[in-house]
Amino acid sequence: MSFEVMMRQLSGGMFTTIQIFVLTLLFSLPLGLLIAFGRMSKHAMLRGAAKIYISIMRGTPLMLQLLVVYFGPYYIFGIGITSSYRAYAVIIAFAVNYAAYFAEIYRGGIESMPAGQYEAAKVLGYTKVQTFFRIIFPQVIKRILPSVTNEVITLVKDTSLAFSIAYVEMFTTAKAIAASQKSMVPLMAAGIFYYVFNFVVAALMEVWEKKLSYYR
Amino acid sequence: MKLLEMHHVKKSFDGNAVLKQISLSVEEGEVVSIIGPSGSGKSTLLRCATLLETMDDGDLYYLGEAAAKSEAGRAVYAPSESIKKIERQFGLVFQNFNLFPHYSVLKNIMDAPLHVQKRDKAEVKEEAMRLLHKMGLSDRANAYPCQLSGGQQQRVSIARALAMKPKILFFDEPTSALDPELTGEILKVITDLAKENMTMVIVTHEMYFAKDVSDRMIFMDQGVIVEETTPDALFASENERTRAFLGKYHLGGD
User: Fold this and answer.
1) H or E stretch including B54?
2) CB-based contact A215 B146, cutoff 8 Å
3) CB distance B101 to A139 below 8 Å
């Protein structure tokens, strides 16, 4: 197999990896905020449910969660698994897993906000929703950005776990080519790809952090 | 006309009585200062008046409209629509400013009039610039709070409160977080507001200032009002607790 063909096959995997990455963030970031609200809720039931959810998601391997989401419908309910479900299973598993981590990051950020900000907003007549989205959340974003960057970088690498349910992304492709060609090159190429991807992610997050450094 | 009326306010934290049957009323155009040692309950009284704290018992009226009424030994608060209306009557200036750090000075002042009161943008901007001019901060409209001195931040927070056009303005130790040399600029702003007949209730440790600016002074200690009278009468008081407290500030020369 020529280098060119190898790279063409790998680039298909790259696209899938980026797709998993983007879709996971798209769903897990808002979902995480909802779970954080549950975790900080006045209602003990909701709080307890969110706590258990986070505990399970963080306490079990992501690879296991992937298998459960993918095979669960068949093993538990006897529903036949279609091949198109594989892509959904990957996104569902990643999104619900990462939402748990993001929920705790949001919670840390929200709870670190000084009470004075809420009080100033209340006295000025802001509603609770306005207070959160106009006053609190923009400041929370600034505070949590470094932790979010950490998670996002981990996510880039975690996308490779999709290979456990034979979902063909970058890593699965590289492994397959390496095995058939008895060559290290595809694995090296995959490594470089992940590194460059993360380099770009980290750089973008740094730009964002700098943009928010206009205030303290 | 009575702008604010509080009757028999009781408040305790974990069984610790902080306010014991406090009554306070403020007439339109009046400047009332509340002094007293820390822990005397004066800040808690202000927080009850501004609805940041709920009273255990007592009445709270703004312009004759009840925010809370005492019923069977506990304060029952009005429904949230009435509370929303009442909240528009007053403003509060905090000890540590509580400006919104992510907003520019101008946006700090304009945001609530625009998004809470839904006022016209051009009108609000004009008002904000007028207030900034009054505070001597016209050139800092686009600065962020972190770029300002404490005194400037406090002047912005006063402008922010005034932009809502409150009928009564509360100050919770407005100079306590400031260096002595920055204190003067805030006291001057408050004195100017008093000259314009702004109704104000000021919790402060600045005795000379309170004496100069107030129509009436209240000395609080251990959750009760010890004395409530004119500044001159308070400083000439025969009351032992009042004298002991004022004596710490070496008033009237030593």
Assistant:
1) none
2) yes
3) yes
pLDDT of residue A181: 83
Using CB atoms, pick whichever of A116, A134, A142 lies closest to residue B111. Answer: A134
pTM listed for this prediction: 0.90
The Cα B126–Cα B149 span in angstroms is: 24
A115 to chain B, any CB pair closer than 8 A? The answer is no
How many pairs of residues across A and B have Cβ atoms under 8 Å apart?
Answer: 53
Which chain A positions have a beta carbon within 8 Å of B144's beta carbon?
Answer: 214-215
CB contact A143 to B (< 8 Å): no
pLDDT less than 70: residues of chain A: 1
Structure tokens at B251: 């008033």
| Chain B residues within an 8 Å CB radius of A120 | 94, 98-100
Report helix, strand or coil for B119.
Answer: coil
A123's enclosing H/E stretch is helix A115-123
CA gyration radius, chain B: 18
Task: Decide if A215 touches B, using CB distance below 8 A.
Answer: yes
ipTM over 0.90: yes
Tens digits of residue pLDDT in B196-206: 999 999 999 98
Q: Does domain A3-211 have CATH number 3.40.50.720?
A: no
Type of residue at A115: A
Rounded-to-integer distance, Cα B104 and Cα B30, Å: 32
Contact B208, B251 (CB under 8 A): yes
Cβ density class B222-253: b for 16+ within 10 Å, e for less? ebebbbbbebeebbebeeeebeebbeeeeeee
Task: Give, for A186, the enclosing helix (H) or strand (E).
Answer: helix A185-211
Q: Please measure the distance between the N-terminal and C-terminal CA atoms of chain B and give it in whole angstroms.
A: 41
Beta-carbon contacts of residue B143 (< 8 Å; ≥ 6 apart): B104, B105
Q: For position A2, what pLDDT does the model report?
A: 75
If you average pLDDT over every residue of chain A, what do you get? 92
Domain boundaries, chain A: 3-211
**Exposed, middle or buried: residue A3 (CB in 10 Å: 0-12, 13-18, 19+)?**
exposed
DSSP states of A60-114: S-HHHHHHHHHHHHHHHH-PPPPTTHHHHHHHHHHHHHHHHHHHHHHHHHHHTS-
Tokens of A146: 């470094």
